[in-house]
Amino acid sequence: MNRRDFGELVAALRQDMGWTQFQLAEYSDIDHAVISQIERGVKKFFEPELLFCLANTFQLTTLERREFILAASGLDEKQSVRQPADGVSTDVFNIRKILDRMIGLTAESRLPAFLCDAYSDVLAANNMMLAFYKVTPAVIENAANSPAGFNTTRLNFGRDSLARTFIQDHWDNYALKTMRSFRENSLQYRAKPYFKFLMKTFRNPVDYPFFDRSWKLVSSTEQDKDANVDQFCYEHSEFGLLNYTACSTIAITSYGNLFLIQNLPLDQHTEDVFLQLKLQAGFGVVRFAPWPEKSMPK
Length: 298
Description:
Elements: H1 3-16, H2 21-28, H3 32-40, H4 48-57, H5 62-71, H6 95-108, E1 113-117, E2 122-126, H7 127-132, H8 137-144, H9 152-157, H10 162-166, H11 171-186, H12 193-202, H13 211-220, E3 229-236, E4 240-251, E5 258-265, H14 268-281, E6 285-287
Antiparallel strand pairs: 1-2, 1-5, 2-6, 3-4, 4-5
């Protein structure tokens, strides 16, 4: 991420907190002139203590801080991966090959699985995951005609949230974990037009009544997260008490990361439920959101 883009990221993080530049300078104990230089992209060198203060002031989680510090390196996505050279083989620039491979793994997984990008747009989901969430053709058609329709945030926090329909208890814990993943995976993209479009959509309290509270809670949660895995344990309205981890396999590309999320059972009952889903739905995959191109309503 070049200095101008990093400055826009800092400005986006500041605006999300509802602060002016003067307030950020006061809360971080950094001169206002320095804050202004950062946001305008004219400050070329970031002292470690400066980045440390900004990360603390923005209340970033451990995984958010990692993305924030990487963004401050000055390298864009195409520079942060291994470069083509004689005798070196890499697919990080072949986005079609990587996407096809990850979709293939999603289809072959023997567990409920889906593939998403850094914005949490679902690019593909296997039949087991669709059966797990009761995603019908009507639901898919409705999502295709809705802003941010294939984003996991819509599934979890929208007015007609499928997840909230099935989870009978421990909803707040489920919501916090899924929101934290959305925030951490998307941190470097907060200033991008598509992310701003998503946030404008999700901050509509009529359509997304559960979003804003969970978004803000991530910064204040007492328990930090230090790995790309979440454990979910809750009473499901149809399947009973489920206990599983949502584990991420990350594919690094020159256009950002892709995340293959698989639900791994942690007890016999959940394993039996997943087995029944496999027998019921079989293998296969359905593709959804486009990548890496993003479209927004005009």
